[in-house]
């Protein structure tokens, strides 16, 4: 089978994207998807997405982790797929699509800046050592110091596979405040990839929500990741409730090409 693919990245979170609106790639197996995401023997990516047709929406987002298995919502992936949909001729001022966690809205600014509305959050587990919440995917958030030298892989993996989380898994985010910017620095261990990624959209969203003060008001939180800078905007409406959440940042085409699969 010959595959025509596109490679996109959003702050270093990279994806193989396929236009599957005619259904030609529906039969790809878990092993084939895993192979396409392999960085030595395939295209390479943190995940693979298919642009699909869905009645009532501009498109549907089908997301797979780099292990070849269907994944939950990916924020940077949603932004990249929106940019790809625009490239494929889906030109709307407000783009509406459906993903695994429900409907989303997105807008574009300039050539490569995408604003993505995330799902509302109405519950946050708080503990002296961590926060736990779902922003389309489950996220464990822990604040640390000296994050640049922190052992994200080792610490993140130990939490992801502990007794509580090992069956279903969780993404693990380590966060350091940046007081001068009134923002945060975030590094994430992602389940499904089973490694640290350069950026995680649902992860930085989760981290930004936990960084908000006690006041119920509108927040704009700058976020630094290994792959670049994002902005998370939202309304805090209660102690643990958040609405009108937007993940904003770049989404860029890296290259496109063809690859033959066995």
UniProtKB/TrEMBL annotation:
One of its GO terms (molecular function) is diaminopimelate epimerase activity. Pfam families: DAP_epimerase. Substrate binds at residues 13, 65, 75-76, 171, 190-191, 201-202. Pathway: Amino-acid biosynthesis; L-lysine biosynthesis via DAP pathway; DL-2,6-diaminopimelate from LL-2,6-diaminopimelate: step 1/1. It is found in: Cytoplasm. It catalyses: (2S,6S)-2,6-diaminopimelate = meso-2,6-diaminopimelate. InterPro entries: DAP_epimerase_DapF. The keyword Isomerase applies. GO terms for cellular component: cytosol. SUPFAM superfamilies: Diaminopimelate epimerase-like. Homodimer. Belongs to the diaminopimelate epimerase family. Catalyzes the stereoinversion of LL-2,6-diaminopimelate (L,L-DAP) to meso-diaminopimelate (meso-DAP), a precursor of L-lysine and an essential component of the bacterial peptidoglycan. This is Diaminopimelate epimerase. It comes from Chitinophaga costaii.
């Amino acid at each position: 089978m010959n595959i025509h693919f596109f490679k996109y990245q959003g702050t270093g979170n990279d994806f193989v994207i396929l236009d599957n609106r005619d259904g030609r790639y529906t039969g790809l197996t878990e092993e084939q998807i895993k192979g396409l995401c392999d960085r030595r023997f395939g295209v390479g990516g943190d995940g693979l997405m298919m642009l699909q047709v869905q009645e009532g929406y501009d498109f549907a987002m089908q997301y797979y982790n780099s292990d070849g298995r269907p994944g939950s919502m990916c924020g940077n992936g949603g932004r990249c797929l929106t940019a790809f949909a625009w490239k494929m001729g889906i030109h709307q001022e407000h783009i509406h699509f459906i993903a695994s966690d429900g409907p989303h809205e997105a807008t574009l600014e300039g050539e490569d800046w995408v604003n993505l509305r995330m799902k509302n959050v109405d519950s946050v587990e708080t503990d002296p050592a961590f926060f736990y919440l779902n922003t389309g995917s489950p996220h464990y958030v822990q604040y640390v110091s000296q994050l640049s030298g922190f052992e994200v892989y080792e610490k993140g993996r130990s939490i992801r596979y502990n007794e509580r989380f090992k069956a279903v898994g969780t993404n693990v985010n380590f966060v350091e405040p940046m007081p001068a910017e009134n923002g945060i620095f975030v590094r994430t261990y992602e389940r499904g990839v089973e490694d640290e990624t350069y950026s995680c959209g649902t992860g930085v969203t989760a981290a930004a929500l936990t960084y908000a003060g006690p006041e119920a008001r509108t927040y704009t939180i700058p976020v630094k990741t290994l792959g670049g800078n994002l902005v998370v905007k939202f309304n805090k409406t209660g102690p643990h409730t958040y609405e009108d959440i937007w993940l904003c940042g770049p989404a860029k085409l890296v290259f496109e090409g063809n690859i033959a699969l066995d």
